[in-house]
Design brief:
The chain is α+β, with helices and mostly antiparallel strands and 223 residues long. It is built from seven helices and ten strands. Helix content is 31%, strand content 36%. The chain is elongated.
């Protein structure tokens, strides 16, 4: 979205429900900023009037100043979700995550005169994703090293996420899947054990984030 006038935004900034700032296109000097953005940066109000790299020097070796220059040059907006930014906070460099956008403010002859920067702090969301990815890696390592046949089914479609060689040998090349048992465990959140011939199969529900069931662990043992 491209705006034709900057003045009408000034009053909106103070009470905006998201982080917002305007930089002059000629030298990337901070013209106006709201408190939410200052809190996100961990910078005082006195940085207003300074250039970007004067008050955020840690960005010099990151991609964001170059992206700003490209938006200024082309007049085309840029948006990104879950972007990782290194900011100097509490006397140390911290990795923070944000959904942000750079929107050009166009004046006469479609010349970019300023850039509107809007951002939302999404650290909690992105850290939850990273934690989930680590849990999946740990779970896969457990499955592959288990001394008994073991398999992990993920989601309502019961896709096989991990399966070890012992379970593959037991299946003898044919994937065994008791859909009724999987549905029972998935929708009721209760473990289930059954016997097929001389094999005991055990289905165990695995909770994901917010205690929501999103996977099932299947193990097998010979009688």
């Amino acid at each position: 979205m491209i705006y034709n006038s900057r003045e009408k935004f000034y009053k909106l900034f103070e009470d905006a429900p998201l982080c917002a700032a305007i930089f002059d296109a000629s030298d990337m000097r901070l013209e106006i900023v709201n408190q939410s953005m200052l809190d996100f940066w961990h910078r005082p109000p006195s940085v207003q009037g300074s250039t970007l790299l004067d008050f955020l020097p840690e960005l010099a070796d990151q991609e964001y100043p170059e992206i700003l220059k490209r938006v200024i040059k082309t007049g085309k907006s840029h948006k990104e979700k879950g972007a990782k930014i290194l900011l100097q906070r509490n006397a140390k460099l911290e990795a923070v995550f944000t959904d942000y956008s750079y929107l050009p403010i166009l004046m006469d002859r479609n010349r970019t005169s300023a850039i509107l920067v809007m951002a939302t702090d999404v650290c909690d969301r992105e850290m939850n994703k990273l934690n989930l990815q680590q849990c999946k890696r740990d779970l896969r390592a457990l499955v592959m090293s288990a001394p008994i046949p073991m398999c992990i089914y993920r989601g309502e479609q019961f896709a096989v996420e991990s399966v070890n060689d012992s379970m593959m040998d037991l299946w003898q090349g044919k994937h065994f899947r008791d859909v009724a048992a999987l549905q029972h465990v998935f929708y009721n959140g209760l473990p289930y054990t059954c016997r097929e011939g001389n094999i005991f199969f055990s289905y165990t529900p695995l909770n994901g984030g917010a205690n929501s069931l999103n996977a099932i662990c299947l193990t097998a043992m010979r009688c």
